[in-house]
Amino acid sequence: MRRLRRCLLATALAVTLPLGLSAPAQAHGRSSDKPRIIVTQDGEVDDMDSFIRLLYYANEFDLAGIVYSSSRYHWAGDGGTVAPYRWTGTAWVNQYIDLYAKLYPNLRKHADGYPTPAKLRSLYKIGNVSNVSEMTQVTEGSEWIRKKILDDDPGPLYVQAWGGLNTTARALKSIQEQYEGTASWPRLQRRISQKVVIYNILNQDATLDGYIKPNWPDLKIIDNQSQFWSFAYLWTRQVPADYQYALKAPYMEKNFLTGHGKLLEQYRTYRDGKPTPGDEENNRWRPDENTAYAVHDFISEGDSPAYMYLFDFNGLRSSENPTYGGWGGRFAPNATGWIDTTDVNTFTGVADRAFPQTRWVADLQNDFAARADWGVTPRYRDANHNPRASVREGLDLSARPGQVVKLHGRGTDPDGDKLSYRWWQYTDADTYPGAVTLSDGATASFTVPADAVRGQTIHLVFEVTDGGTPALKHYQRVIVTVK
After folding, report:
1. Which of 16, 248, 444, 454 is most buried, judging by how many CB atoms fall within 10 Å of its CB?
2. Given this model, what pLDDT does residue 14 score?
3. Which first-to-last residue range defines the signal peptide (predicted)?
């Protein structure tokens, strides 16, 4: 079990459960191997594209909710004094799930664990959507989140804010109104603060600072305030030129937009002639606008880092600790949890707030391209699948300054593809402030620097790439702690 999850679980179990909460989920046999997530979103074009990608990766999660919320960019209005603003409606989620249903039989041929379309539909709830920051109403969505927060699973429960946090805030406020002032309240609040982890994309309404932080000061927040932009509308300013091919029209057309089924036909790209009804202000679909981008260039998935952070199937172990980094970015500790931070851009040599995300763009796009193939490929042998990497010595090691560490990596491939190997040091994730010299190939060795101090860590990534199309990777992160 992942280290962060172990910590949260241990704390949750140590707290006596208040009235209304039953025994831990493990007593009922629920698997905790998959990250448990609730998605809240506001229906913008990039939410739609992020949701499409999520459906192809739905087997990697214990999906506990899909909740429609509002934001400062989108709200439904109240049918009276509050008019709708850039409102795209709520029907598209079920439409996308219906299209997922057509891919579902094929996806199951390539990987286990894909949820049934009926299961996904049962998770879809409408939350607080009438206005930006509206959290006075108790809604179907807020009640769903409230019940998941109070259920018998000890956590962690990752609540992702692709839009505003107002529906989540309403759920927390409903709990506070029910229990505050009772004998069980301090223990319950402590338990919830250990269980719930919010992944926040930008601040898309006022409820995080206005309600959640003042009333739930110990709730952990992974705060992505700027890194997400590198996988959003203005990506050409942030993604290194060498990786931009994976976001440009020829790649998008070949791997996603052509011949990959009805769901990916809904995937929005720049200047594609596909308007989004209700959002007239978003003119990025217009062929005569945004001419700096080609027709069918990638447009935006600014919310996908919220769940890509939890991609542990790739071996990067990013969910163990937000400071480790992975396909969902990298973060540094702050007063309320973690906030997005910098990596040194290997092309410029300069600390770059986008690079913790953009360094993985080609890899994560190739991975998505393979899953797009899965959806339209009924036979396992006719598509590519990820190789598997392993390290003989294990993933958590300790060594003294001056000690030689030898690491034996190995790769296997379910499709029989030829494999290539690389070891590299993720210096930005290290707490040792320096570099080590690694030998190349599947077997690597290095000497722990003489100036390394007890407790410092060195992060080494073993990367296995297959020879398939698209080329896929699997990693193993070895963390060497100085003793």
Report:
1. 444
2. 34
3. 1-27
Beta-bridge mates of residue 352: 343
Q: What gap in Å lies between CA 293 and CA 282, rounded to an integer?
A: 15
- Which residue in the block uniquely carries the two structure tokens 């690491």? 407
Task: Report the distance separating Cα 398 and Cα 458, nearest Å.
Answer: 10
Choosing among 3.40.50.2000, 3.30.1330.60, 3.90.245.10, 3.40.190.10, the CATH entry for 1-383 is 3.90.245.10
Task: Check if the beta carbon of residue 255 is closer than 8 Å to that of residue 470.
Answer: yes
Contact 56/371 with Cβ under 8 angstroms?
Answer: yes
What is the rounded CA–CA span in Å between residue 468 and residue 447?
34
Q: What is the DSSP string of 363-423?
A: HHHHHHHHHHHHHT--SGGGS----EEEETT-SEEEE-TT-EEEEEEEEE-TT---EEEEE
Model confidence band, residue 17 (pLDDT cutoffs 50, 70, 90): very low
Handedness of CA 464, 360, 46, 248 (dihedral sign): negative
Angle between helical axes of 45-56 and 91-110 (0-180°, round to 10): 30
Nearest to 102, CA basis, from 265, 257, 240 = 265
What letter represents residue 37's amino acid?
I
Residues 47, 68 contacting (CB under 8 angstroms): no
The whole-number pLDDT of residue 19 equals: 28
Measured from the Cβ of residue 193, the count of other Cβ atoms closer than 10 Å reads 18
CA distance 355 to 343: 6
What residue has token string 């992505």? 224
pLDDT of residue 24 exceeding 70, the answer is no
C-beta of residue 359 within 8 angstroms of C-beta of residue 242: no
Quick one: angle between helices 185-195 and 166-179, nearest 10? 160
Give me the percent of the chain exceeding a pLDDT of 70. 93
Chain centre distance of CA 455: 29
Q: From 116, 20, 53, select the one nearest 302 (Cα to Cα).
A: 53
- What CATH superfamily classification does 387-482 receive? Immunoglobulins (2.60.40.10)
Cβ atoms 48, 106 nearer than 8 A: no
pLDDT at 32: 54
Are residues 197 and 298 in contact, defined by beta-carbon separation less than 8 angstroms? Answer: no
Distance between CA atoms of residues 292 and 473, nearest Å: 32
**Mean pLDDT, all residues of the chain:** 93
**Cα 242 vs. chain centroid, distance in angstroms?**
24
Domain ranges of the chain: 1-383, 387-482
Phi, psi of 84 (to 5 degrees): -65, 150
Q: What is the pLDDT of residues 395-416, one digit of tens each?
A: 999 999 999 999 999 999 999 9
